[in-house]
Amino acid sequence: MGTMTSTAVSVPMPTVPRRRRSPEEVHSAAPVTGPRKVLLAAPRGYCAGVDRAVIAVEKALEHYGPPVYVRKQIVHNLHVVSTLEEKGAIFVEENDEVPEGALVVFSAHGVSPAVVQSAADRGLRTIDATCPLVTKVHREAVRFAKDDFDILLIGHEGHEEVEGTSGEAPEHIQIVNGPEDVDKVTVRDPDRVIWLSQTTLSVDETMLTVNLLKARFPTLQDPPSDDICYATSNRQAAIKKISPSADLVIVVGSANSSNSVRLVEVALEYGAKASHRVDFANQVDEAWFEGVSTVGVTSGASVPENLVQDVLNLLAQYGYGDVEEVVTAEEDIIFSLPKEIRAALKAMGDSSRGLGGRGQRPAS
Ligand code: SF4
């Protein structure tokens, strides 16, 4: 006869939801001495590469009809992904989840040659929505690997972009996550070493890593042109300007969006007293506003402007209706849509829409 054992089962206590105070209550309760205002960063939000990738999926859905498979999140934003899912996009992690012969879009973050090959092996039809600025880094990796350089790729191990770039020349590339990795780097010939980087890093931290690498390898070569992209640098420059005057900086962007997460870090480094990232306005916590006069607001490069406007509307209800836009750069970069989409549009007789860029410019 078996022994009966009793297992203690912990039953979670029912939680009483905390009552969310009305914006008016928060407004009157927050002990603020100065006037309440918002400093709104510009540039913010959609970059040309994200815009192009999202339009590519939309056009693929229009032209070929659903389902259109997308390998990985097309861009790192929950709202964008769920909106495309509603239209018939199916997001998968790997090509082997896509039925043979079906259409798959590669995300803005890029793919390694092995992923391209696995799609070909399955007979998949592909649309490559890799951002041209990521493709540029891939080309640099191929070129310097061909010249037999050791390539130090500064970036976050496990990030899709870093996987794609390092897959171009795995035998030549070492990933350097940041300053803490510099001492672990080993190279074959210190005079044939170049650094490249992920496009969405902190500009300041990357330069710190580069300077430490140069202390070890004085002839370390720089990339032929900046790998951190214009959108990442511009959004960081804008929040650097705002942060010293901000009691609180709210960054709209998803947790897996590298450039959004960097904006929170940069805001804190440059003097914001607090900074939080939210996907949606309903994640803004009323407790953040205690004693806050000035709120900085920005958004990552994969964030549609309507999500920022939702946050601004909420802030206005909290008494922060005075919005000053702080413009540190104008952006007018537009990329051509992927060639497969351009061909499809041409076949539909639509030759006027071969460009990405649908006016996500900040309101002035
Ligand atoms: S953040 Fe930069 S690299 Fe990434 S999609 Fe946008 S422009 Fe391209």
Draw up the topology in text.
Layout: H1 23-29, E1 37-42, H2 48-64, E2 68-71, H3 78-87, E3 89-92, E4 103-106, H4 113-121, E5 125-128, H5 132-146, E6 150-154, H6 160-166, E7 173-176, E8 193-197, H7 203-216, H8 230-242, E9 248-252, H9 258-269, E10 275-278, E11 294-299, H10 305-317, E12 323-327, H11 339-347
The structure holds iron/sulfur cluster (SF4).
Residues 47-50, 108, 131, 133-134, 199-200, 229, 231-232, 259, 301 line the site of iron/sulfur cluster (SF4).
**Spans where pLDDT lies below 50 across 5 or more residues:** 1-19, 358-364
**Main sheet overview:** 5 strands, parallel
| Helix count from the secondary structure assignment | 11
Distance between the termini: 79 Å
Defining traits:
single chain; 364 residues; alpha/beta; 5-stranded parallel sheet; 4-stranded parallel sheet; 11 helices; disordered N terminus; disordered C terminus; binds iron/sulfur cluster
Structure description:
Helices cover about 35% and strands about 15% of the residues. The protein contains eleven helices and twelve strands. The chain has a five-stranded parallel β-sheet with strand order 10-9-11-1-12, with helices on both faces. It has a four-stranded parallel β-sheet with strand order 3-2-4-5. Strands 7-6-8 form a three-stranded parallel β-sheet, sandwiched between helices. The longest helix has 17 residues, at about 50-65. The structure holds iron/sulfur cluster. Iron/sulfur cluster binds near residues 49, 229, 231, 232 and 301.
